[in-house]
Amino acid sequence: MQTRYLFIFFIFFISANVQKTFAALDTEQYNAIVDLQSTLKQTWNLANICLGNTNFISCDNSGTIVKTLVFSNPSDNSVLNVPDQLLIKLLNLTQVTFSANITFNDIFWTNLQNFKQLTTLHIAKIINLPANTGLYFPISLNSVVIDIMQIPVPQTLLQFTRGSLILGTSNTGPGLMYPTQLSGPSLLTSLTTSSYGGGFQINGENFVQLNSLSLYIGDYQSLGYNMFDKFPQLIYLFIQASSNIIGTQVFPHSVFTSLKLNNFNCKAAGKYYMGTPTINFSNSPNITSVFIEDLDLTSAITYPGIQTYPNSEVLFTLQRCKVDLSKVDFSAASYFGLLDCNLIGNLPSNQDYSKLSKLDIVGNFSGTVPNEVCEVKSSLNLYNTLVSSLPECFVCEWGGYQCKMVNNTLMPYQSPSCNNISTVMSPSLVPTHGGELIITGYNMGWGVFGLDNIQLPSSKVYIGNEKLSFSAPTGTGKNKNVSYKLHGPTLPNLPSFLGTYSYMPPTILGIMATPENINIQGDNFTPLVNLINVTIAGIQVKPTTSNYIGIVIKNLPSIIPYYTDVIVSVKVVVDGQDTTKVIRPASGTVSASLEFPTLTSSGGYLRIIGQYLTFDTTLMSLTLNDVSLTLFKAESANSLVFSYGPIAASQTYILNYNQEGTLFSESVSVSSQPQCQVVQGYCVGNQSVCNSGYTGPDCSSLNIVTPKPTTNQSFPITSYQGLLQFNNQAIVIKYTVQPVSLRERNQAGQTIVDFPLSTFNLTSYPDADQYTMNFNNSTLVVIIHKYTSANSISYSGGSEFDVLPSTIRYQTGFSAYNFSSSTNTLEIAYQMVMESTETTGVCGAYDSNDMTDYFYGKSKINYIDFFTRVNKKCDQNQMSGNTIYSLSYPQVLPYKITSTLTFQAPAWFPWNVYSSDFDFNLLFDTVSASQGTTKMAPVCATTPSPSSNIPCQGNPVCGGPSQGICQTNGTCICINGYTGSICDSKPTKIPQTDPNPSNPNTDTETESGVGLHISILSIRELDFQGKQEREIPINGWTLKQVNSTEKITYLYSSTLFNGTCLLNVTIDYFNQDSVVSFAGQNSTKLAGSIKYSAQITKWPFLKQINQLEVVFSSSIKDTSESIDSCTHKTIEYDESNPLETQSNVRMVYIQVNDRTFSTTFNNLAVVDGIPRQIRNVLLPNQVNDSNTQSNSLIGVLTPHHNEYIIIDPDFNLLVSYVDPSDKEGSICSDSDKKKLTKAQLAGIIVASVVVGSILLLMAIYLIKRTTTSKILIGKMKSKMNRLK
To answer: Which PANTHER family match (predicted)?
Structure first.
């Protein structure tokens, strides 16, 4: 009984759900269907409307909306009108079909505009249409079909119907009348219709989108339509004449001038005759297919019978046509099909069949096939013919796949036979990247085969049986042999043939040189560099890589020393074949002269200047009284330096420069006096040229590479501070450069207007910062260029200056300014302060001099120079002018030198833009300031100046004089390879470890049992106040390893946010000391150190003002967990910004026993390609420190980015020579977490707690007040509490 009830419940459940699934038609639509069935007497199944009316009704997937509807004739065959008020309720219809007995009111055609999804309207019969039919068709409607329509066609139907229109294809008589012309453009793309009684006589000019026309012609009157060329976009044309037509009309030759026609199909039914001597498509460039049926091509036709557009590929098919073969030009098409035609005569023997790819003849042909037909490119196929013999070329392929011979009962052939084959390879020069080998002869067939009788993929037919080709492989050299076969499948035992060819010799087209590489462009080279010999400027060089069109050679200054207007001879030999070419600019005339007309009797160097000079000594020479001089240095195509030996003074010599036969001569004199003053270099003429690394006017200085200065956000000030070591001296030098005044002055030097230098607007670029300030309807622009590499730079006024790494250039500009007087000037003054933090044992001096293109000043403290260079040219309204400037030294102290640089811009009439430059560098000078200069005697300090020195940490202080130098601000400057906050450590190598395949964590252990750990825990998104909005853990890493001599690199990649954000982490383990560049700054990474680089690309910020925090974790651990172990942690802060005191971590030192794990956090990141300042903040540890483990958790805060951001911390392992137990804040056991040093314990035991507290407060106050690199100190208070 229970089973029965369950079964009944199951059946009920199924029935209920079936009804719910299939009977949920929208109520309004359901009612409309019911009423339409009743009104139009349909036989629909109303019990299951959507699924029970196959071929009549269909619904959407939900079963709630009717999509297609087919109305059949009323059940009693009565004629009924569409009830528009019911149909309008089915607005979601996409297709609707009406039978012949259903008629329409005018409102039906208007209501169609409401059917926004309707695509197809099919009506079996129309007896009337409103004049505006089509005007209200919805945009979605793209197919209208009216089977029977014997009334005039409204223009609007033709104009506003989109897509396809089919009219009257079931008509059997006249009535369907088209207008003779449309009054406006039509939207139709396809029209299919019939014509009776001349109903289709329309001019198609306004069918501007119609590309397909199909016309069924029912009577004689309609047969004469001949305006197909009026349809401007017609591509496909189909014409079918009724076989019941009485009489014939001339073939509609307008199709021949339908310029865009591509496909023409005409079923003539014998009702057309040719009114022209040819089927002439020669003016139809787009025609590709022609099919004609039942047309007489004998009576009016003359040769060539068929014409096509030159060089076109046309498929031409004639079916059941009468054809005189002698009148047909078989070269007019790429394919000819003669299907069941009445063929008169033989295939012509005097024609070129090589342009014909394929010829098919089916039935009713008993003529001959001449030998010329062998020229077809692909095949001759004969079906059901009475041909009795074939040329031998076809017999050679009998039974093969190439030519099909089916049911030709009179042919006697049973198997392939080929007794007369001739083949020879034409003399061929083939490109080295491979090319075409041509063979000629007769009876060769239609393909070239390998020795395995398989057709070669590269086989090609030019002329069937007479000219074939196949590809030669890549290669080089001469007289190469190749074997090939013919008729492989049909005559597999036919012997192979041998051909000989050679590869083309190399060709040189040009050359492109860079400091790194020389690229020779040309052709017929080879990727096999061992087969290539290259000679450039008479020097044989070895290629590094090559391909067929290029050769790459590692460049050296001795090969191609410059890269503009190069003239050089190049010889390339490839596998014994060579070519030589002199590379030269497209235009230009050589000129040459001696720059400085006096030589030195002791010998030296001279410079030839000019245009389009060459360094190639195979093309030029320089002689002095017929003695050849040696090219010393080719500086450019405008400057060559030659060396010469000792020569007699007081004599005149003839100098001859000869370049490719063009001779330049001049007389020179010789003096016994040196041409210039130089310390580390030589003279070329009267100019000093410094030896490598040296710089300065007399080549006495070495450049100092310093970190790129940070950008001030509101003022164009540049500052630097750093420890500099030279000539066994270490000194901390700092400088500041900034504008200090802007004023208008009169001729007497009096100030007319003094403009305060307020806040500037900053625009930053990768290597420059632009500051702008508006004043008195003018604009002051100061651009600070920060050069990181040596280069030649264009300055204002067209001056060219060489800059060194760390050169800082100030470019000052003014826009239009309203002067009080035309004799006034606008003056801007810059103050430059150089000083030492040491005030004893230092000397100061300055020097200055006027050079050809610039004026320089040098502030000197000991062996350090602050070198300032003032450009003597300026821009005045984009014209070069002379700079009005002054450089003074109002204050010169032993430890501080102040200089003032002033620029004066004269009143600009008519020009209105001014620009001038100066730049500066720090230099090591081989001459100390203590020796004085040509401008002044030195100012030296031997006694200390008053100061409030702060004691440094360490015992001995800063590790002692051999390890560090104590600064007056209480910090240590480490020397001789020592590092750490108190200079107690030296770097050692982090042990190499295998990469973690699942995440970019680094875990390794030293031989002494010290474990090291580095990881990126997560990425946090913070709001502008630092509040966390979300934290994203990182999973799904992929790893790739790259090894080199310099380093081992682990590349980790992961994606976040469904792949829209990419995270790349690069871990570099350095095998050797390496210089690494990041954010425009160079740094040295020691062997055995680790550098992490993290790039985040396209993070989807929740807000534009949000920032990211990348959390780095590091730890050091005594893996033995000895109770005797001690740990210590030191945090150093970057306090270059006084507003962020103790908030920007620079260094982290975590120590266990004698090993210290250090982390350096950069204060710069690369944001969308531009270096930007960032902050590194100390986060609460997730694991407490102990006597065996010290941890660090740092958050790297990065600003909002659009594309990407890159951060770059690094890690080092140090050997520390001061035990942690002797350092403040050490942890030495679980029961004694914060332990004081042994010396401190002895002192504190005899002191009172009160006195100790006072000392603690004083120490904290002094450290916070004066220290610039602070060290975290453990809570001394807790230690003293333990002593109570």
So the answer is: EGF-LIKE DOMAIN-CONTAINING PROTEIN-RELATED-RELATED, PTHR31378:SF17
Cβ density class 114-130: b for 16+ within 10 Å, e for less: ebeebbbbbbbbbeebb
Q: What is the pLDDT of residues 142-164, one digit of tens each?
A: 999 999 999 999 999 999 999 99
Q: Shortest CA distance to 668 belongs to which of 622, 736, 730, 726?
A: 622
Q: Cα Rg for the chain, rounded, in angstroms?
A: 48
- The pLDDT, as a whole number, for residue 942 is 67
Q: What is the pLDDT of residue 994?
A: 84
Nearest to 1130 by CA among 1242, 1278, 971: 971
Q: Contact at 8 Å (CB) between 645 and 624?
A: no
Nearest to 100 by CA among 83, 118, 77: 77
What percent of the chain is helix, strand and coil (3-state, nearest 5)?
A: 10, 45, 45
Is the distance from CB of 548 to CB of 526 less than 8 angstroms?
Answer: yes
Per-residue b/e over 71-81, b at no fewer than 16 CB within 10 Å?
bbbbeeeeebe
Q: Which stretch of 873-887, 906-920, 1033-1047, 1074-1088 has the lowest confidence by average pLDDT?
A: 906-920
- List b or e across 765-794, with b for residues whose CB sees 16 or more CB atoms inside 10 angstroms: eeeebbbbbebeeeebbbbbbbbbeeeeee
Question: Which pTM value belongs to this model?
Answer: 0.54
Contact at 8 Å (CB) between 1091 and 1085?
yes
Dihedral sign, Cα of residue 816, residue 819, residue 822, residue 827 = negative
- Render 956-1024 in DSSP notation, one character per residue: TGGG-TTTEEE-TTS-EEE-TT-BSTTS-EEEEPPPP-PPPSSSS-EEEE-TTSEEEEEEEEEEEEE-T
The first and second tokens of residue 1231, run together, are 């029961």
Largest CA distance in the chain: 140
CA–CA dist 216, 972 (Å, integer) = 103
CA angle 314, 320, 324 (to 5 degrees): 75
CA 71 to chain CA centroid, Å, is 60
Non-local (6+) Cβ contacts of 1083 within 8 A are 1075, 1076, 1077
Q: 3-state DSSP call for residue 1193?
A: strand
pLDDT tens-digit map of 224-262 = 999 999 999 999 999 999 999 999 999 999 999 999 999
Tell me which residue has tokens 């305060």.
Answer: 756
How far apart are alpha carbons 582 and 660 in whole angstroms? 11
Mean pLDDT of 924-951: 76
CB 1145 within 8 A of CB 1176: yes
Tell me if residue 875 falls in helix, strand or coil: strand
Q: Helices (DSSP H) in 174-231: which residue ranges?
A: 220-223
374-396: buried (b, 16+ CB within 10 Å) or exposed (e) per residue? bbbbbbbbbbebebeebbbbbbb
- pLDDT tens, 45-67? 999 999 999 999 999 999 999 99
d(CA 340, CA 321): 8
CA distances from 791 to 311, 622, 788, 801, 803 (A): 58, 30, 9, 8, 5
Q: Show the CA angle centred on residue 754, arms to residues 751 and 757, nearest 5°.
A: 145
Name residues whose C-beta falls within 8 Å of residue 568's C-beta, 6 or more positions apart in sequence.
511, 536, 537, 560, 582, 583, 614, 615, 616, 619
Which DSSP symbol is given to 395? H
The β-bridge partners of 58 are: 68
In the numeric block, the tokens 């010469």 are attached to: 644
**Angle between the N-to-C axes of helices 1276-1283 and 1238-1245, in degrees from 0 to 180, rounded to the nearest 10:** 50
Decide the pairing of beta strands 751-755 and 1164-1167.
Answer: unpaired
